Structure prediction request, 807 residues.
Amino acid sequence: MTHDAAIRRPPRAQVAPAAVGFASIVTALLLTELLIRIGVINRFIVPPPSEIADSFYRLFAEEHIVRRFLLTAGECLITGVMISAFGIAGGVLMHRVTLLRQACETWVAAFAAAPVVLAYPLFMVIFGRNAWTIIMLAFVAALPPVILKTIEGMAATRKVLVDVGRSFNLTPTQQFRKILFPAALPAIFLGVRLGLVFALINVVGVEFLINYGGLGQLIEDLAERYDLAGTYAAICFVILVSVLFFIALEKIERWLRLVD
Amino acid sequence: MAATAPNADDAILVVDDIVVRYETPEGPITAVDDVSFQVKPGEFLSVIGPSGCGKSSLFNVIGGLLSHHQGVVTVAGETISSPHKAIGMVFQEESTFPWRTVTDNVAFPLELVGMPRDKRIERARHFIALVGLEGFENSYPGELSGGMRQRVSLARTLAAAPKILLMDEPFAALDEQTRLLLGDKVLQIQQQLKQTTLLITHNITEAVQMSDRILVMTYRPGKVKRIVDIDLPRPRNSEIVGSEAFGRYVAQIWNDLREEASRGMRDEESHMLHHHDHQGTGS
Amino acid sequence: MAEAGRLSGAAPATPGLSPVTLLRIAIILGVLAAWELLAQSGCLYRDVVPSLLAIGSALIELLSHADYYFNLGVTAGEIGIALLVGGFSGLFVGVVLGANRYLSKAFEPYLYYLGPTPKIIFFPVMIMWFGIDTESKIALGTLSCFFPIALNVAAGMRQIDRVLIRVGQSFRANALQMVWKIYLPAMRHPIINGGRLGFGMALIGTLLAETKLSNKGIGFLIIQTYSVFDMPRMYAMLIVLFVLAIGANALIGRLGGLDSIRRA
Prediction:
């Protein structure tokens, strides 16, 4: 069919949905505020959104949320470096040694689906109630996607590119450095991005569970002190951080894809 | 245009003054402009035209899937505003349900109206045999070829016993040989069941081979350019493709179509250029 | 197939073992051996790496007491209900968002970005709302599995071959028939994948909640072994848990795979 533009709507309508979505959320918050003030919702179970908003200031002034954020971020960074180093190396190794790949790839995939975080008491025993438990657990949980994506990226290199390398008589190392690895980079970045997402989730989660660390621990702390508004505010802050983090990762990946 | 219109009382399908318009960013376009025709019971009518003549819009209007139009379509006296049980549609794309066996696919319309299981299966088997797929009752569409899947779609539509069979380029995705053989099959079935059939196509050979009459449409806005009576003897099959009379009909229709198809091409080219210019200046 | 050509004089005792299997066995044996060595060496604090024998007997002990199965039942029940509630609400929301472009653009981004956040941080809120008993664990499990299911179903709706919907319309199927006979079967793969992910998330959410605050369930048992430093028992529990989790995941995956012959 020639003009499939036939049923396209004028661009004007595109802006509205996002605004409607946002407006709905704001309306829901206002409604909650109202229901709490008139007593329909118990304010000792759900603090009024206005109070939660006020608590934000407290988070910055008294709870040193910035320092905590940096601590969490630091743990994620270390985890990120570790999973990149070991994950890419491991993936490359498994791709090179075909037998190893055939034997172990399904294991790694199964491990990716395993609820590693449930073993946190074990990690606590081994590493103690400190940052290493957090980092090591996040490392183990976030490693599989990096390995798998690295293997996938290298295996998916178009055969013709490999043949080009062969026709120039490249040594295996040169072949790897100049053809296989660069061709696999988009998939590898995707793997690292997935790993970072897993890492953040596990870091914050374990901080909460073992009551140590940055943002996750803050939530636990505020909850134990029965600071309702503060707890809600801290949860909102963590959600905000993780959402911004994911959006940033997406943008970086897109930028890298364009550059490639 | 109305030179060979049948007596209105006989007609089972009456298409009256259909106009279909769409909104596009470049302004409204008229896909179908004032198309009228009638179909007699048992007749095989083809609608042929170049890409962009509004054939598919017409198909959707008659099938009741497009209600945003002017004009009226009636079948056996009743006006169509949504899919009517007297009309059975066969679509151009693959439309079998991949998760159902051939039998369950064909029995689908019977299931919807609550026919009991044994009767459904029996009836489905009958139509599966009719399209020549005996032995494949328990196969899944994924195991069949494209041509076989279209036959399943056809059997499914026929199982609902529609008064009018409405097909939109059902063989477009198939290779030439399969298309010819399936065309034979459809002809055979149509003649056997005396099924009133409306076939939308862009393939002249197919249209001449199978039809009693052919409606030639213009390029957008689609109007009826000419209605041609095909006076070839029945029963027909793909063998008549070589005959002289056949060739004359094809030449005549191609003459009409060529004009319209060229217009269509020129229109598209100018549209592409226009679009390209716009993009270049970044407007 | 190629075996016949390769078999020479020295036929292996078990001719069916491929090099891959041999490598796998070698790796497993190697790991077990290294473990046992570490356990016996005594260079780590006692019982951080217990001997395989200790773990083995703890495993037997674990599985032979009704107590364990009671707790397993509790946890399984919690996960089951979480999946039911989260599954149906996720299905409903997914269908609505998938069917309507406008609503999808308005609200789906929120689901998409909220999805990957760690749900355990909501647990204090769940306790406030539902109390300290099973309900709060179920609530957290529900919250955890809702997102992947809703997102997968919404994506699945959009991927349905449009012609199949037109077929249903041309045969005048009513709304219920459209959903039951066309939409849902057409989405069976995204639904199963969503279910798989959802199961994993519900499992994690429920269990972590149990470790945090509970007096029954597998999570509770695990944290209990931690507090009394009964390491062999902890290892045994983790082993059983991981086997069950990976097994259930594979099972659900197989359910989707059985379909593969039907796939067009």
The radius of gyration of chain C is 24 Å.
